[in-house]
Amino acid sequence: MENFIQDNSTERIIKIAKGEQKADLVIKNAKLVNVLSEEIYETDIAIADNLVVGLAKNYEGIKEIDVKGAYVTPGFIDGHVHIESSMLVPSEFAKMVVPSGTTTVVADPHEISNVMGLQGISFMREASKDLPLDVFMTLPSCVPATSLETSGVDLNSYDLALLIGAPWVLGIAEMMNFPGVVNYDKGVLSKIKLGLEKKKRIDGHAPNLSGKDLNAYVAAGVRSDHECTNPEEAIEKLRLGMYLMVREATGARDLEPLIPVLKKINTRKCMFVTDDRHPKHLKKHISHMVKKAVSMGIDPIKAVQMASLNTAEYFNLQNLGAIAPGYKADILVFSDLEKFEPEMVFKNGKLVAQNGKVIEDLKDFKLPVLRGSVNIKYLYHEDLQIKVPKDKTKIKTINVIPKQLITQTIYEKITEKDGYAVSSINNDVLKIAVIERHKATGNIGLGFVKGFGLTSGAIASTVAHDSHNMIVIGTNDDDMYYAAVELVKSQGGKIIVENGKTLAHLKLPIAGVMSDMPFEKVCEKIEELNIAAKQIGCKIDDPFMSMAFLSLSVIPELKITDKGLIDVNSFEITDLFV
């Protein structure tokens, strides 16, 4: 113990920094991209006790790595990400993002929290330990997102108070309920107060909020936003002191539209985030955003700043985001500042990835135990039937718009059989059901959707934002019933069935949103789902992503939850029949 204390003493650090002792590691002949001074110059980097201790030529180390003039940058930081959206557990997520240069993420465990509450947050924390990736968290602010759906839990400020003081908690996650903020909702304001009292960040989520309402939102303490999709919106928020989180998600890519802003204004209040990404988009993570920004005319030093220092400073991570004495030795080595593909990734001064692959072995990692989460009331075929009232001829139908989260309300003629409304395959009007799966309430929302193009079978998933109830779309009740039962058996997942047989099935037994399988196996199963979807006639490239947002009752125009068809514009349950 005495040797440990002596080896890690400040005195030893000082001696190494002065060159009186050898460093643990010296990276020689590096072209340092210095995000603090905004310049690039050649130097050696001395590392000891997981920290950078000196920048100067001619340092000596117990181990030395000559990078021969390669560029060296700080490790990259993702400022806002839902790890669960990748359907991977944190260890598998790390295997994918670390080789591309992401050494730290700020995760919002919003998805698993809607299912498991504090237990879900605890799971993510325990599953993120001892990885070559720092996983900090912000606490979900909107669980549930609305009162128009049934979530697994309801997290209030008293619940969040149990965790807000933890050093790995950096603040309150995206405040989606911006109407609650500007209309003085006490429950919402108590969560903001909780974060501010602990001097932690309040992240925002306020698409299209503008003018005096935006002023009120910022004045309440919200300091960032990742929902800007155009320059005008971004500049207004920057002018009011908000940090701009530039997002490149699987389904929402905002970097290119915001490039004019990054060229025009002070980028020190801008950072890169990914929000939600599917597995196939994880190999190119924050580094790909840096590369894209530089290719579109952004200065490389500023692009690296947005991927490192800016994010660290926003979240008050004082020893991250730069390469300088006293900073953690999270370091990337690049052959050029165009491709931005790291040849080496160092985490805490240890080489953890090289040439696109993780070196550290994570195979023996054991996941924490988590309870089952797919709990539905006994389901009968009759539960999926829709009785047609007398004198009704049309139904309100959710019209899916390709590559968009918003939907339209359209009116379709009822296709009737034995007094019940059924799918019309010829007209591409398919039955949709949302089955409550947390508390076995028996709630089932039934309706119709247009745009998927199924000609047979059914698709179903327990990934359905934000409460993640079970959602099923099908051409007939028998296949819909079969799909739902199979997801109960697997305790969550995504499935495609036809004529009472499973064509493809990705099991998601962790809260119904994550797999316990390796990345490669998850990708294999996703590809099987895509092939099977086309086999039953689906004309949407990623039907599960489109389906997952049909239950998100905060995005216009017509959505469906376990409580019924939702008119988002009026924010109320609406009648199916016209």
Keywords:
578 residues, alpha/beta, Urease, subunit C, domain 1, TIM Barrel, 3 domains, 30 strands
Structure commentary:
The structure is a single chain. With 578 residues, the protein is α/β, with parallel strands linked by helices. The protein folds into three domains: 2-69, Roll (Urease, subunit C, domain 1), CATH 2.30.40.10; 75-318, TIM Barrel (Alpha-Beta Barrel); 381-573, no CATH class. 26% of the residues lie in helices and 27% in strands. Strands 1, 2, 3, 4, 5, 14, 15, 16 and 17 form a nine-stranded mixed β-sheet that branches. Strands 19-18-23-22-25-24-26-27 form an eight-stranded mixed β-sheet. Strands 6-7-8-9-10 form a five-stranded parallel β-sheet. A hairpin with a 2-residue loop joins strand 16 (350-354) and strand 17 (357-358). Helix 4 crosses helix 5 (118-127). The longest helix is centred in the last third of the chain and has 17 residues, at 519-535. The chain starts with a helix and ends in a 5-residue tail after the last strand.
